[in-house]
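# nightly structure sweep
# worker-07 picked up a monomer target from the shared queue
# config: single-sequence mode, recycle default, output format = C-alpha cells
# input follows
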Amino acid sequence: MRSDSEVDLVNFVERYDRVESAFLTTGDYASLREMQTRYPLQTRRLIEDVLQLGNVDDAHINSRLYSFFQDSTLQTIISEVGRQYDDFQPIADQLLVAFERLKQLVPNTEIPLVYTQIGSLDQSVVVGNGFLGISLDKYLGSDYPIYIKYGYTESQRSMMTCDYIVPDCIGFYLLSIFPEPSNVDSKVYIGRVHHVVNTVMNRKVFDTEYVDLAEKLKADKGWSFTELLVNSASE
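# output follows
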C-alpha cells in the first residue's frame, strides 16, 4: 500500500509490462536484471501465481519464462499490447481519480501500488500484499482475433476492452479487501461490489438485477457503502 503522500500523479502506474516485454522479445539481460531488482514482487507474482511456471528462485526459471513466451501467439500479444498501450497515461489518470473517489465512499481504503503486466490470457487483475497488477493482454478489444480464435464468447469479449480496466481494478480490489459476508449469496455480493464500482465510476458499468438489489438494499437500510460490503443482512 502507499500513503496519500506517496501517490505520484505522473507515475501512478508502473509500466512493468515494458520491461517484461523487452526481456521476452529479445532476451535482453539488462531488462531481466531490472525485473529482478526493481520489480521483484511483480516478477515473483507473474512467475509463481499468474503463469505458475515454478519458484522464482529456481536455477532455470528465467530460461523457462523466456521460452514460455516464445510461442508465436504470445509474441503477437506482446506486440499488440505495446502498440495499443504505448500511452497508458489517460487510463492511469482515470485510475487515480477512481481510487481517490473510492477513498471518499469507503473511508480508510488505502491506494495500492498499481502496475501493468503481460500474462498469457489468464487473470485480468491480480491483487494482494498492497499491489494491483493489470494484465493488459486481457484488454485488447472485443474484436481482437486471438480472443475469437481461442473461443471467448461475445459476452466475455465485450468486457475485454480498455473501458473495463478501471472498473475491473476497483471491483477486484474491493473483493480482495472485503471478504464475502456469511449468509450472502455470491451473485448478490458481486452485485453489491458492482454497485460500489458504478458509483465510483459515476456511470452504470455493470447493469444486473443484483446491482439493482444492492442499490435498493442500501437505500432501504440507510447503509454506508462500507456497511453494504460487510453486512450479512440481505433484505
